[in-house]
Amino acid sequence: MIRDERLTADELQRIDDHIRDDWPTGAAVDFEAAIAYHESLPAHKQFADVLESADRPLLQPRAGVPRLDDQVNLLTHLHDEGAADLLPTTIDSYTRDNEYGKAQEGLETARESGDATLNGFPAVNHGVEGCRELIDRVDAPIEVRHGTPDARLLAAVTFAGGFQSFEGGPISYNIPYTKEGSLAQTIEHWQYVDRLAGAYTERGVTINREPFGPLTGTLVPPSIAIAIMLVEGKLAATQGVRSLTLGYGQVGNVVQDVAALRALRKLGNEYLPDEVCVTTVFHEWMGGFPPDEARANGVIGLGGTTAAIARPDKVITKSPQEFQGVPTKEANAAGLRTTRQLIDMVVEQDIVLDGVDEEQALIERETRCLMDAIDAHGDGDVAQGTIEAFGSGALDVPFAPSDAAEGAVLPARDDDGRVRIFEWGELAMDDDIKEIHGARLADRAETEGRKQSFRMVADDVDAISDGKLIGRPTGTDAGTDPRGDGGESRAD
Amino acid sequence: MPTTVILGVIGSDAHVVGITILDQALSAAGFDVENLGVQTSQEEFAAAASEHDADAVLVSSLYGHAEQDCQGFHELLAREDIDATTYIGGNLAVGQDDFEQTRTTFRTLGFDRVFDSETTPEEVIRSLERDLGISTREAETDRVQA
């Protein structure tokens, strides 16, 4: 039975030997040589130091292409033209599925044809030397960003290759990313990743770890996201991780977003051991974007404004081409500049928002309910507690594709656009908190002259791409009569 | 007897929001919903339809590979002797914005109705009521003609 206990040196070695056999590049992983390489890097490429000593929110985009030269050029462009403070290397989908053979084919086709045949950088295939060449040729700290449930070999290769920050975690890269795949297994796999990061850290090479806060990216209630960040933070800390960046995805209501980021930082410092340096990352809107660059810039601008008020340590930016998928490097740099403009204009203003303290108190109470439930489910063991709490539905994520989660919780916006919980499932929450959510949703229903229903959820999912925050009924679809006769133009 | 509807996202697609909402809407409207979730194979759709003696099979696809994923699906259903109404909906084609053409493609594959990603749950419910003859307004015999 998996428990939240530190892997021994023998276990680390055993998994290490076994995992490095999964692909030929694993053989080049040498811990002592890797420590020496990290120590040779200049101060401005030391990820944790740069992040933790910053005096303003640092900006980081998403970006990954298959070929090494192209990745160097892309990151250099984002650094020079977008003024990104921190850079990413986004990993391709085959690698995320541990399909290194398919990634190799894609990489070779890309090298021959020049086309981007993969949707990211296949770091395992590039190997330790390829990763170090990237680190050497790009003049800023670089993080590995991916979505890999079993990221053991990816971590072994990229840590040895000079990367000092690694996104993901056993819940945040399981629940939103796969259908099958038990939490017990992903927790076990990530214990190795975190223990490896801990082993580097103990040798003076801090590996920053970043649980993926936005989860399913679709109207995730702040307390659910924060609870999962705390769980992943605790699991990582047990394995010796000492630099943790907890994440949260923008929901679009400024008061709720500022309150959530403050709650995330406060609870992170409270729940995680003192020896861990906790930082926060704010993801600009992860849901559907408007199909129009001008309007998309508006969404990005709201993210920058929110960041300027809440002051997270890092902001992950979006591009105005988000709607159509992978952006051009110019559009990606534009998203960075738009965000920086908003942050720098707003950050020195003393803006006091009404209701932030109350909202923060509510988020903290909700998060404590979830953390207490996890504790109770696992008899004090956070690994077991998380598995059991997801099993019973006491912990849940809306729109989770994974069989490991109930996926019964449904969110909807209240009359002010804050994300509330419309359908609770078995989520562990005090009754008076449920009443608060119910009352806020009732206010919205009254304003809109309709009953609370799944229809609000559906409308809210599309609202921002449709140009609003709240999915209010419009003149054409206000009717709730299911026996109405409209819609034939679209139906067959 | 309640009407049984099979719901799922076909292929390797993990987009879950649409069927989650559809599940809620159909359940609220009184349908017996068997939601197979994301990343569902043709065989899993067929097995569930057979096991639950389904009246309708609703296939969702958002990632653009629907045409490939649905090749041979109706032949499989026929071989398994499954006589259910079939719908497909979502973002059914990449970079192809002529929905009439997409509709024709999927009608040819054998689907009874084809919906775009803007379709509301109510439209689906109305269509099911009509096709399955379960609306109070329509006689049972309408189903034969549909």
From TrEMBL, chain A:
Basic and acidic residues composition-biased segments: 480-492
Broadest EC class assigned to this enzyme: isomerase
Enzyme Commission number(s) of this protein: 5.4.99.1
SUPFAM superfamilies, alphabetized: Cobalamin (vitamin B12)-dependent enzymes (SSF51703)
Gene3D superfamilies: 3.90.970.10, Methylmalonyl-CoA mutase
Binding site for L-glutamate: 62, 96, 145-146, 167, 173, 177
CDD domains: Glm_e
Stored InterPro entries: Cbl-dep_enz_cat, Glu_mut_E, Glu_mut_E_C_dom_sf
Binding site for adenosylcob(III)alamin: 64, 119, 176, 289, 318, 322
GO molecular function: cobalamin binding; methylaspartate mutase activity
Catalysed reaction, written as an equation: (2S,3S)-3-methyl-L-aspartate = L-glutamate
Origin superkingdom: Archaea
The entry's keywords: Cobalamin, Cobalt, Isomerase
Pathway assigned in UniProt: Amino-acid degradation; L-glutamate degradation via mesaconate pathway; acetate and pyruvate from L-glutamate: step 1/4
Cofactor: adenosylcob(III)alamin
UniProt record, GO biological process: L-glutamate catabolic process via L-citramalate
One Pfam short name: Met_asp_mut_E
Disordered: region residues: 465-492
Family membership noted in the UniProt record: Belongs to the methylaspartate mutase GlmE subunit family.
NCBIfam families: MthylAspMut_E
Quaternary assembly: Heterotetramer composed of 2 epsilon subunits (GlmE) and 2 sigma subunits (GlmS). GlmE exists as a homodimer and GlmS as a monomer.
Function: Catalyzes the carbon skeleton rearrangement of L-glutamate to L-threo-3-methylaspartate ((2S,3S)-3-methylaspartate).
Protein name (record): Glutamate mutase epsilon subunit
Organism: Haloarchaeobius litoreus
Organism ancestry: Archaea, Methanobacteriati, Methanobacteriota, Stenosarchaea group, Halobacteria
Automatic annotation (TrEMBL), chain B:
Domain B12-binding as annotated: residue spans: 2-135
First-tier enzyme category under EC: isomerase
Entry keyword set: Cobalamin, Cobalt, Isomerase, Metal-binding
Record keyword Hydrolase present: no
The enzyme's E.C. designation: 5.4.99.1
Domain of life: Archaea
SUPFAM superfamilies linked: Cobalamin (vitamin B12)-binding domain
This protein's record includes keyword tRNA-binding: no
CDD domains attached to this UniProt entry: Glm_B12_BD
Single GO MF descriptor: cobalamin binding
InterPro entries named in the record: Cobalamin-bd (IPR006158), Cobalamin-bd_sf (IPR036724), GlmS (IPR006394)
Family: Belongs to the methylamine corrinoid protein family.
Protein's name according to its UniProt entry: Methylaspartate mutase subunit S
Species of origin: Haloarchaeobius litoreus
